[in-house]
């Protein structure tokens, strides 16, 4: 799924209960993180839930980033899935140029996630930018 498709899916789902279910279903489809990568070094701080994140960097020119992350919370795994849609396969420069606040607003997440979940979402994005060298 790409970002345009995600926006369209959110437009079709008129109520937030359905959107939450959709986010959770997306989270069930993210690839698992290898247990050996669930280390303190890979932990995302700033999240209420436990989140571990690693990136793989391709040998392309420019190098592309592939995000792998998991959480112990289903809704957070859904937010990770959204983050993968936004960032996966991007270069470090493209990652730096993403208007995450704008995407967050366009999806309507700012009014429907708790401040702690919002802070955790942006902590994951900051960790990704840091890992990608931005």
Structural notes for this entry:
With 134 residues, the chain is mainly α. It has helices at residues 3-12, 16-28, 74-87, 92-97, 100-107, 115-131, and strands at 51-57, 65-71. It has a single domain (3-131), classed as Alpha-Beta Complex (Sufe protein. Chain: A), CATH 3.90.1010.10. Helix 3 (74-87) crosses helix 6 (115-131). The mean pLDDT is 92.
Give a quick summary of the entry.
The chain has 134 residues and is mainly α. The protein is built from six helices and two strands; from the N terminus they run ααββαααα.
What class, by secondary structure content?
Answer: mainly alpha
Number of helices: 6
Distance between the termini: 25 Å
Radius of gyration: 14 Å
Structure summary, number of beta strands:
2
> What is the N-to-C order of secondary-structure elements (H for helix, E for strand)?
HHEEHHHH
The percent range for helix content is 40-55%
């Amino acid at each position: 799924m790409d970002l345009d498709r995600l926006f369209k899916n959110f437009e079709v789902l008129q109520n937030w209960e359905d959107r939450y279910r959709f986010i959770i279903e997306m989270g069930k489809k993210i690839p698992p993180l290898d247990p050996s990568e669930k280390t303190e070094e890979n932990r995302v701080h700033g999240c209420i839930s436990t989140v571990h994140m690693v990136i793989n960097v391709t040998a392309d020119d420019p190098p592309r980033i592939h995000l792998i992350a998991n959480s112990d919370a289903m809704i957070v795994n859904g937010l990770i899935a959204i983050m993968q849609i936004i960032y996966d396969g991007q270069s470090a420069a493209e990652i730096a140029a993403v208007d995450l606040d704008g995407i967050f607003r366009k999806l309507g997440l700012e009014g429907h996630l708790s401040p702690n979940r919002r802070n955790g979402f942006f902590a994951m994005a900051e960790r990704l930018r840091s890992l990608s060298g931005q």
